[in-house]
Amino acid sequence: MLYSSECGNACTRARQFLAKRGVPYTAMDATQPAVQEELKKLTGGVLAVPVLKVGREALRGFEEGKWNTSLDVAGYPQTAVIPAPAPIKPAATAPTPTPASPAEAGRY
């Protein structure tokens, strides 16, 4: 979970960092009262963002080195994993039926 707001450069860099690593996360809006209560419990009463929760660990403030270490330990990829697109195979075309001659048309 990423607890953030429109806090400026730190929150923007935190979101960009997670996107670059390809880490899925739930965005928690720290301007909402219920989210603020959760945030206080995680941080010991401090309302400062961004905060990244990885497992049971809460990382306060954006520090790329700490975030990388925590995410590495949790097993997240170091870069976004985007599967290569499968090659597009042309559709098999059925042979074009030959029009029946008037003599053959009545045989079936």
Give a written overview of the molecule.
The protein contains 4 helices and 4 strands. With 108 residues, the protein is an alpha+beta fold. It has a 4-stranded mixed sheet, with helices on both faces. The protein starts with a strand and ends with a helix. The mean pLDDT is 84.
In the sheet with the most strands, the strands line up as 2-1-3-4
- DSSP strand tally: 4
Assembly form of the protein: single chain
Helix-strand sequence:
EHEHEEHH
Termini Cα gap: 70 Å
- What profile does the largest beta sheet have? 4 strands, mixed
Q: Kindly estimate the percentage of residues that lie in beta strands according to DSSP.
A: 5-15%
The overall pLDDT average reads 84
**Alpha-beta content class:** alpha+beta
Shape: elongated
Using only C-alpha atoms, the radius of gyration works out to 28 Å
Helix content class? 25-40%
Low-confidence stretches: none
- Total number of helices: 4
Task: Sum this structure up briefly.
This protein is an alpha+beta fold and 108 residues long. The protein is built from 4 helices and 4 strands, in the order βαβαββαα. Strands 2-1-3-4 form a 4-stranded mixed sheet, sandwiched between helices.
